[in-house]
Amino acid sequence: MTPPDDWREACLSNDLPEAGTLAVTLDEQVFCLYRVEGATYATADRCSHGRGSLSEGILEAHTIECPFHQGCFDIRTGAPTALPCNRPVKTYATREADGVVWLNTSPRDVAGQP
């Protein structure tokens, strides 16, 4: 069973630039944070195909491109959007308050819903 409160302080808001990525380690897991049009998102940092670090990839709108094989994912749902990636990455809920980005360390389901 999941702990009642799995929200963790991920970073300061200023550490996550617009159209940027940031790798953070929480509870011995590495996550990739994103900011697009002022909203924050989070996925697992590892690509589901080549194990590349998504935080080192290219972010365009809501799509992250893995630096290893150029496979892509929708950061809102984790769904693969370009080959060779064909398995989704885990996504995580985020919230931002008082200059802090918070991340819920329990993954959403495959469709991107809590």
UniProtKB/TrEMBL annotation:
InterPro entries the record matches: Cholesterol_7-desaturase, Rieske_2Fe-2S, Rieske_2Fe-2S_sf
Question: Which keywords does this Swiss-Prot/TrEMBL entry list?
Answer: 2Fe-2S, Dioxygenase, Iron, Iron-sulfur, Metal-binding, Oxidoreductase
**Name of this chain's protein:** Naphthalene 1,2-dioxygenase system ferredoxin subunit/anthranilate 1,2-dioxygenase ferredoxin subunit
Bilayer-spanning residue ranges: none
Q: Name one GO molecular function term.
A: 2 iron, 2 sulfur cluster binding
Keyword check for Protease: no
Q: Where is the Rieske domain?
A: 7-103
